[in-house]
Amino acid sequence: MVEKLSKKDMRILAELDKDSRQPDSQIAKKIGLSKQVVNYRINNLVDKGVISQFYTTFDISRMGFNSYYVFIQLEKITSTKEKEYMKKLETLDYVGWLMTGIGRWDVCLLIYADTLEKFDHHLTQIIELFGDSLHDYNFTMLLKSEHISYKFVSRSTDSKILQEENKEKVQLDTTSLALIKALSSNARISLTDIEKTTRIPMYVASYRIKAMKKQNLLLGYKVRLDVASMGYEWHLLLLKLQPVSERRKKEFFSFCENHKNVYYLTRTIGLYNLMVDIHVRSNDEFRQILQTLRESYPDVIKIYESIVVFKEHKISYYPEELTGRNAR
Question: How many angstroms separate the CA atoms of 46 and 10, rounded?
C-alpha cells in the first residue's frame, strides 16, 4: 500500500535524512510545527512502516576493515526457504548490508573483514549456508562510496556521506566501542538511554561522540525508508566500465551523482566498477534513465546489469568482531 504523505511529513523526512539524530524541537523550529506534533508525526511514520530504521554511519575503514559486496544467484528455492536464509544472514555479525531482489542476482550482501583470509573464511561460511540452493556467486571490493540522499524527499546533497578505503586506523577503547554499538542500530537513542544501557555517564558519552565526529570516524546520522511504501521502485544498476581517461570517468561519476533519481554511488574493484542505486516511479522511468546513460556515455559503459530490489533486510556499521579485539 502506498502511503500518501503530507508536505509537512515530507519535510520531516528531509530533515531526518540530513541528520536523523537532531532533536524534535530543532526539526519543529525549521518547519513551523510544535515539538509534540513533530514527535507524533515521526512515530506515525514509523508505525506505518515508512521509516524502518534510524542508523549511524561510521567509517568502517578507520576501524581497520575492508568492505566486500557479494552477489548470490539461487536455484530451486521456495520463498519460505529464502526467508530462512535471510534470517540466518541477518544474524551474521560481519554482514553489514543485506538485500533481496530480482535480476541476475537474487541476493546482495556486504561483508566486513580486516584481512583477505578473514574475508575468505566469511565467504566460505556463506557459500556453505546456501548449500545446494547456490547456483552462482561473485564479489567486488569497495573503493569509494557516496551516500547522497533520498532525492524524492529532498534534492539537497549537503548531507552526502563519503566512504573510502585505506584510511589511517583509529584506536578504539571499550567506551568508544560501546558507543558505536549503541548508535549504530539507533541514531536517535538519547544520552539518558545510552547511560542506562552502557553505564557511560551522559557527559562522557556526549564528549566522546563529538570526538568521533572530529576524527571523521562517525560520519552521519541517517534514516532508512521503505521506498516501496512511498510509491517508488529501487533499481541497483551494476556497471563494468571501459578503460577510458580519468577525466571522462569523473564526468560520468559527476553526472550520476547529480542525477535526480540517484541515491547512492559505489565504486568497486572486481566484477563491477560501479554500483548505482536509483529510485524511480516505474520501469519505464528506469529504462529512460538507462537509455540516457548509454547514449551519453557509450565510451564509458561496457556492460550493465540491474537488480530490482524487493527488500532491504539489514544496515549496520558495527562489525561485532570489534568487541573481540583487544581494545586500547
Answer: 13
Q: Which of 256, 266, 225, 226 is nearest to 108 (CA)?
A: 266
Q: What is the 3-state secondary structure (H, E, C) of the chain?
A: CCCCCCHHHHHHHHHHHHCCCCCHHHHHHHHCCCHHHHHHHHHHHHHCCCEEEEEEEECHHHHCCEEEEEEEEECCCCHHHHHHHHHHHHHCCCEEEEEEEEECCCEEEEEEECCHHHHHHHHHHHHHHHHHHEEEEEEEEEEEEEECCCCCCCCCCCCCEEEECCCCCCCCCHHHHHHHHHHHHCCCCCHHHHHHHHCCCHHHHHHHHHHHHHCCCEEEEEEEECHHHHCCEEEEEEEEECCCCHHHHHHHHHHHHHCCCEEEEEEEEECCCEEEEEEECCHHHHHHHHHHHHHHCCCCEEEEEEEEEEEEEEECCCCCHHHHCCCC
pLDDT tens across 300-310, in order? 999 999 999 99
Q: Which residues pair with 98 in a beta bridge?
A: 109, 314
How far is residue 111's CA from residue 130's CA, in Å, rounded to a whole number?
Answer: 16
User: pTM to 2 decimals?
Assistant: 0.91
pLDDT digits (tens, 9 = 90+) for 283-321: 999 999 999 999 999 999 999 999 999 999 999 998 877
